[in-house]
Each structure stands twice: as C-alpha cells, then as structure tokens.
Amino acid sequence: MIPNITGDALDRASEKNLIAAVRGGVGLGGHHGALATSFRDAWDFHYMTGVQWVQHPGDIRDYRVDIVRADDPVMAGIESFDYRSEQYYVLYDQTVDILATTTFDGVPDPMVRGVTVPVVFKRQFGLGRIFYSSLGHQAHEFGHAAMRTILRRGLGWAARG
Q: Less Cβ around it within 10 Å: N or C end of the chain?
C-alpha cells in the first residue's frame, strides 16, 4: 500500500516500479482522490488503477450510493445509502469489479443526467489487488459508518488482509 497522494507527478521510473510491484502481488488501495486524481500525466498508472477523475459537478452535494454487489465481502451487510460529498464523475476501465455506483441527477449540469459511474470497485492487476472508493473528501466523512466500513474492508482486501 502507498500513502494517500493526490495530484503531484510521478516520474517514469517510479511509475514502472510501482506497476511492476502491483503486477507482482503488492496491494494498492485508495479513497477519493488518491488513485483517481493522482499523477494525472501517468497514463500507465491510470491503466493499472482503472480510474481517472474528470469532474465533480455541483461540488459538495447530496447523492445516493447504490450497492450493486451486496454478495461481495467488502459490501456485506451494507445497504444503499445517502451521502454528502463531492460526487465524482470518473472514467473507468470496463474490467473493474464495480461494488457500488452513483447516478447523476443532472444538477447543476444536465449533461450528466442519468449517468451512472462507480463509487467503489476492486480489480485484480497481475498478482496484485487494487481497491478504490471515491468517498471521503472531508475528514468528518470518516464518521459515516458505511463509508468507514467499506474503506477498511476494501483496503484489507487489497492488502490480502
């Protein structure tokens, strides 16, 4: 697992080493911006993580998180819930295993009305496991029981814990 990094740059040698480590079995997990907004110009990094942030129309707002894989151990016992934060509009790899989604209502941008994107997913990358949740923009969000449980379980899954 790596520290929570958002933005910043990743030199090519470090990117190659990180990708090799994950392919070899190292777990990688992140929440909110950690994997989606990190290293914007590191295309191979985003190929590996399966996600890249694009926008959060409406900034901090109320939205729904829909659990789509209640049978997955990361999501066990968690039902769909309302959430207040940045609702991330992301580009994502079709091979990710989506565990929860959100659907945009078109406020404030009607261009995204009805668009559903993943909020929580996991994936295998070589021998490594990758976990991502877009939840957790502000520190007080860690007080939300479902968010905290999803993050703890997902990071544990990625670390093979």
A: C
Buried b (16+ CB within 10 A) or exposed e, 4-43: eeeeeebeeeebeebbeebeeebbbbbbbbbbbbbbeebe
Domain boundaries, the chain: 12-158
39: helix, strand or coil? coil
List pLDDT tens digits, range 34-53.
898 888 889 999 999 999 99
pTM: 0.93
User: Which tens digits make up the pLDDT trace of 94-145?
Assistant: 999 999 999 999 999 999 999 999 999 999 999 999 999 999 999 999 999 9
What architecture (CATH level 2) is domain 12-158? 3-Layer(aba) Sandwich (3.40)
Compute how many other C-beta atoms are within 10 angstroms of the C-beta atom of residue 148: 14
Buried b (16+ CB within 10 A) or exposed e, 94-119: eebbbbbbbebbeeeeeebeeeebbb
Dmax (CA) of the chain: 43
Phi/psi of residue 88, nearest 5 degrees:
-75, 130
